[in-house]
């Protein structure tokens, strides 16, 4: 793929204090764009100064939400290498989302090449402190200027980057989670297994209600039976019950197949842990809790890596886990994955892709 690069003549000041970066608030100097037009395919791959898009008010994405995205990171090692974590998995997944949303496929090698090229151009924006990273947001949206409902013939694929702070500034803090019984995130046959933009719009209400009650996130149950566990917020979820790691299987196609989830399963098995992917009923966790066998719960995702759950509320039942501290398997997974990502430990399963 030929990528034309136009560098900014007016670079922004880089953030002076990496401890104040937060998440997704500031953006680098450049962005990647390519266009799709029916008959031409994807064309005009380019890196240009970061700037607003000009969109027709009738652009399809604004009305019918034909859009999806990815989320990944570039990490700076102590030696100064810049590296990605399993970027071909993101490339595969954006096409899984694209398929479901009638968005044309993006060549997976081109996807990774575009990410690498942009990170290289904005290399100085990758922060230095351990735990900080450059968050990378590839996204696709439909721009046909017309109101008829149909699969778009004109789209934009873009990538923007944002330096982000360490998710846990003061050690891994367990979160309080509320089991959502009114709203659902996804149903079999819908878009729950994709990173469709619309999935996030429909999740906001439950999040708002949970926050009003003092909970940080919701645990989603399946949309049909309202009993099988699906995800926690926008993370996958895992439990340790009686020494075994269990996590909802992806079979119902209503759960997003996280790359962190997949990596946790693979690295746990690589180290001899027993991990089972299957349907998990919420009542099963309540029973395990009452029997003293519910040992740990945690969310998994690119942003936080591992998010330990300290409290789970289901109706009137409040389950408190690991005494407000992080459980041993959660901590091991966090240390192992972040060790690989920031290049502090070896990479036994070949997950790292160098950029520079
Ligand atoms: C992105 C996402 C995840 C986590 O996926 P990772 O590849 O691990 O970052 C989990 N659930 C939902 C709904 C997501 O959007």
Describe this structure as you would to a colleague.
β16 and β17 (317-320) form a beta hairpin. This protein has helices at 60-64, 87-100, 108-121, 197-201, 204-212, 259-270, 282-290, 328-341; strands spanning 4-5, 30-37, 41-49, 67-69, 72-76, 82-85, 133-142, 154-164, 175-179, 217-221, 229-232, 236-241, 244-248, 275-278, 294-301, 305-314, 317-320, 352-354. It has two domains: 4-164, 2-Layer Sandwich (D-amino Acid Aminotransferase, Chain A, domain 1); 175-341, D-amino Acid Aminotransferase, subunit A, domain 2 (D-amino Acid Aminotransferase, Chain A, domain 2), CATH 3.20.10.10. The model has no long low-confidence stretch (mean pLDDT 96). Strands 1, 2, 3, 4, 5, 6, 7, 8 and 18 form a nine-stranded mixed sheet that branches. With 356 residues, the chain is an alpha+beta fold. Pyridoxal-5'-phosphate (PLP) binds at residues 71, 195, 231, 234-236, 256, 258-261, 300-302.
